[in-house]
Amino acid sequence: MIKIDDYFSFNNNDIIVIGCSTGPDSMALLDMLIKIQSKYNLSLIVAHVNHNVRKESYEESLFMKEYCTKHKLIFESMTIEKYGDDNFHNEARNIRYNFFEMVVHKYGANYLMTAHHGDDLMETILMRIVRGSNLSGYSGFRDIVDMGDYKIVRPLVSFTKKQLEEYDKENNVKYYIDSSNEKDKYTRNRYRKYILPFLKKEERDVHLKFLKYSKSLNEADKFIIKERNKALKRVCENQKILIDKFLLEDEYIQKEIIYYLLSEFYQDDLILVNDGHLNLIFNLLKSNKANCFVNLPNEVIACKKYNMLELKRVTEEITSYEIEFDNYVTLPNNHKIEKVNTCEDNSNNICRLNSKDITLPLIIRTRKIGDRIAVKNLNGSKKVKDIFIDKKISLDKREIWPIVVDSKGVIVWIPGLKKSKFDKKKNDSYDIILKYI
After folding, report:
1. Least confident piece of the model among 30-44, 189-203, 378-392
2. 221-319 adopts what CATH topology?
3. Measured by CB atoms within 10 angstroms of the end CB, which terminus of the chain is less buried, N or C?
4. What average pLDDT does the segment 292-300 reach?
5. Candidates 3.30.420.10, 3.90.1150.10, 3.50.40.10, 3.30.70.330; correct CATH number of 328-436?
6. Domain at 4-116+154-202: CATH architecture
């Protein structure tokens, strides 16, 4: 039988918040803690999140509440009423950890414990390798994370999911199975179903090899963190990057500084951030434009103002912008404009241009008073304001609707709404194809 205090050193009177989902892993962790509760005089608080995406969620939440009443445990719960447009798993994780932290502070807990196990670690490492990350990211996640006034502890990383299910069976621990864990549409599920079984077949204790790999990377990361912290003092003021000094640092340290600043917004790991996001930030740092920004996941933006770059959460609605277009841009209205090689579409979401007819580079900006566009197949021009009215675009959407102009300020396209006289037919001569998605 697994004895959890063989794997983590408890102190008398510890206050522990347990993130518990009613699944086999978290119910095993909860049972282990209950078994040693009197031995260490532990205060146990169960924090449960109803993700509200399956019909069984309410039943599971009710079970968890009754279980806690039966075992005289404090029960705290929340229901996620609404999700945004981000990746479901990532968004749910952020909501979950914010809730857990709130419960930790409410009870003055010194530990938040979660039931992450060896299979979870393997999945995370493999996903990070494929997506791209830094050394800390490639290590997966740490078994103990110091959050300042409390620690996140994952005491089950030495065990596989199968071992925890066997524990549940031996100890008659009831649990629920989340049916969504079988759906191939989720990236983590595909690793779980197809990659891990192959690795386990090659090596029975492969999860321990991954754990050793993770710890080795974390040891190396400790040294790099020391060097990064020295560099932070040289290149940052009030969490803002001094760009001229930043660009003098070693390229690897530059990346570590960016990851460090991003970690403030993405908890203790950076699952939301990949190499593509990092490239966006570096392009911003090296841009000749004095004022520009890029959008990052979860309403975070990287904003450049002359020699300063700042990462911040969007706390107020962006009502104006001006972006020099290269090949791809994410817009504040959650749409994108990208340059493509071919396209059969001929809607207002596509614009074909001949660079000889306009002055590059193209600029994407919000509307200005008096804006007019020379509409395609119309002898003359039309006010942009009237086009918005004709298309019944609401006032709030008008404020951030993209207008594409050339470097002389001539409007060449209103994405999704209207083409200009500069737009070419499919059989005409053109060398630029823009797509609004």
Report:
1. 378-392
2. 3.30.465
3. N
4. 82
5. 3.50.40.10
6. 3-Layer(aba) Sandwich (3.40)
The 3-class secondary structure across the chain, one letter per residue, is: CCCHHHCCCCCCCCEEEEECCCCHHHHHHHHHHHHHHHHHCCEEEEEEEECCCCCCHHHHHHHHHHHHHHCCCEEEEEECCCCCCCCHHHHHHHHHHHHHHHHHHHHCCCEEECCCEHHHHHHHHHHHHHHCCCHHHHCCCCCEEECCCCEEECCECCCCHHHHHHHHHHCCCCCCCCHHHHCCCCHHHHHHHHHHHHHHHHCCCHHHHHHHHHHHHHHHHHHHHHHHHHHHHHHEECCEEEHHHHCCCCHHHHHHHHHHHHHCCCCCCCCCCCHHHHHHHHHHHCCCCCEEEEEECCCEEEEEECCEEEEEECCCCCCCCEEECCCEEECCCCCEEEECCCCCCCCCCEEEECCCCCCCCCEEECCCCCCEEEECCCCCEEEHHHHHHHCCCCHHHHHHCCEEECCCCCEEEECCCEEECCCCCCCCCCCEEEEEC
Residue pair 275/297 in contact (Cβ under 8 Å)? The answer is: no
pLDDT tens per residue, range 197-235: 999 999 999 999 999 999 999 999 999 999 999 999 999
Q: What is the pTM of this model?
A: 0.62
Cα atoms in the 13 Å half-sphere on the side-chain side of 253: 20
Q: Please say if the pLDDT value at position 375 is more than 70.
A: yes
